[in-house]
Amino acid sequence: MSKINPFQPNSPVAPGMFAGRLDEIQALEKGLEQTKYSNPMHFLVTGERGIGKSSLLNYLKPLADGSIKSPDFERFNYILISIAISERMSLVTLIKLIERNIKRQVGKVEKVRNFLDDTWEFIQRIKVMDSGVDKEQSSEDPDLIIDDLAYSLSRTCSRLTAPEKDEERKDGIVFFIDEADNASPELRIGYFFKVLTELLQQNGCNNIMFLAAGLPDVTEKLYSSHESSLRIFSQLKIKELSPEDRYYVIDRGVEEGNRVNDEKTTITREGKEHISTLSEGYPHFIQQFSYSAFEFNNDGEISAEDVLSGAFNPGGALDAIGSRYYASRYHEQIKSDEYREVLSIMAENMNAWTTKKYIKEKFSGSEQTLNNALQALTSRKIILRNQSKRGEYRLQQKGFALWIKLFGERKK
Ligand SMILES: Nc1ncnc2c1ncn2[C@@H]1O[C@H](COP(=O)(O)OP(=O)(O)OP(=O)(O)O)[C@@H](O)[C@H]1O
Ligand SMILES: [Mg+2]
Questions:
Q1: Which atom number of ligand 1 is nearest to the Cα of residue 249?
Q2: Whole-angstrom Cα distance, residue 142 to residue 287?
Q3: Does the pLDDT value for residue 165 go beyond 90?
Q4: Exposed, middle or buried by CB within 10 Å (0-12, 13-18, 19+), for 33?
Q5: Identical fold between 21-237 and 335-411
């Protein structure tokens, strides 16, 4: 009989297996508390692919809407609006999504539904032109649209926080805006946040919190569309999980597996150590190595060998991680074996600065080829050139470095 694998390398983690992030959760809960008492705070969660941004957002949702009570605060009672930004999303689509989310959640009572229809009536007036390639462009000035949005949101939020008779009182609204790095330049996301938060404040609306998440380059996107937009947000940079947190994830996973399967599974101390070390704390590596070890094990006890086979065998964890996150960059964007050799040499130092001299000593090709490689990899933003120290380079992403490093070890 096949066993249900409790590890989830392909989706944000279930609350029961969620590990760590105590400081971030504390900061976010404090933000909820402040916003509830009319001192709104906004957060920007940044971190590499697969580091756990969406998982953190998902963890906060049941706390924010009161499905779960946080030990440190009274039960919150927010309306949640969850939106993932896509590359093609226009301002009009974004605003329509906001409207739709609000109506879905609070428009069940007829009286409130009528109020919402009235308050969000401006959306019906926005004329949309088809500007090709799936893009909707409004003929109306974006400033006017944002102004209308701010007004409608403020009215909605006032009604929620100071409701009429028989209506439930809410703490306010929390926006969860994931994948913000996808925002196209036309969406002008920095400008959007900056202007919207200022207008909300002017309209006396102080119970709305924005929580945005994205890859580290989201900060440049925000900055380039409005220089001071970053100042709205407290930034939470998500890092690797500590060894204790890694063990916690593995233990909870094994427990969960034993809860749902008749056949019981254990894991040896060495098995856990291997997952912890190989993953270097990258959550998606932990989940994938654990998943593959669980799959590979066939005697009820996950041993160090199961972990290694699950990780390095063809079709195992490294292949899965590669095809999910990195392989296209490694195999398609980097066509030459020599360039890949340069990356492998650099990956030995993970994403720390590495001198060209060091690379040259280990590199099998000519200096000219090395120069070309460094040039090409820099222009593709796969590696970074040290602006303050000549002749130093590093890999942009630690997760990518780890994958290349482990990939190299497979051959040995
Ligand atoms: N705190 C955590 N505890 C346990 N597992 C986690 C944690 N955070 C993330 N994971 C696991 O790591 C993987 C990636 O998580 P998630 O999708 O949240 O990352 P992300 O930063 O949103 O990635 P992306 O950049 O692709 O959107 C998932 O398998 C998830 O289950
Ligand atoms: Mg995500």
A1: 4
A2: 43
A3: no
A4: middle
A5: no
What per-residue confidence (pLDDT) applies to 318? 86
Local structure of 281: helix, strand or coil: coil
* Ligand 2 center to 164 CA (angstroms): 38
Average pLDDT over residues 343-359: 92
- 366 Cβ contact partners less than 8 Å away, ≥ 6 residues apart: none
Residue 201, pLDDT > 70, answer: yes
pLDDT tens digits, one per residue of 283-301: 999 999 999 999 999 899 9
pLDDT for residue 127: 66
Task: Determine the residue of 22, 181, 284 to mutate for testing ligand 1's pocket, defined as the one with the most ligand atoms within 8 A of the Cβ atom.
Answer: 284
| Mean per-residue pLDDT over the chain, rounded | 88
- For residue 5, the Cα-to-chain-centroid distance in whole angstroms is 24
CA distances from 80 to 53, 104, 388, 406 (A): 17, 11, 44, 40
Per-residue confidence (pLDDT) for residue 288, from 0 to 100? 95
Ligand number nearest CA of 247 is 1
Cβ contacts of residue 314 below 8 Å, gap of 6+?
Answer: none
Closest residue by CA, ligand 1 atom 14: 50
Q: Is the pLDDT of residue 332 over 80?
A: no
> Is the CB of residue 13 below 6 angstroms from any atom belonging to ligand 1?
yes
- CA 233/CA 231 separation, integer angstroms: 5
In this structure, which residues have their CB less than 5 angstroms from ion ligand 2? 53-54
Q: Which ligand is nearest to the CA of 256?
A: 1
Please determine, for residue 144, whether its predicted confidence score (pLDDT) is greater than 90: no
Domain residue ranges in the chain: 21-237, 243-318, 335-411
Q: Which CATH class is domain 21-237?
A: alpha beta
Supply the pLDDT for residue 401.
Answer: 86
**pLDDT recorded at residue 229:** 87
- Under CATH, which architecture does the 335-411 domain have? Orthogonal Bundle (1.10)
Quote the CA–CA distance of 173 and 308 in Å, as a whole number: 46
Give, using CA atoms, the residue closest to atom 25 of ligand 1: 49
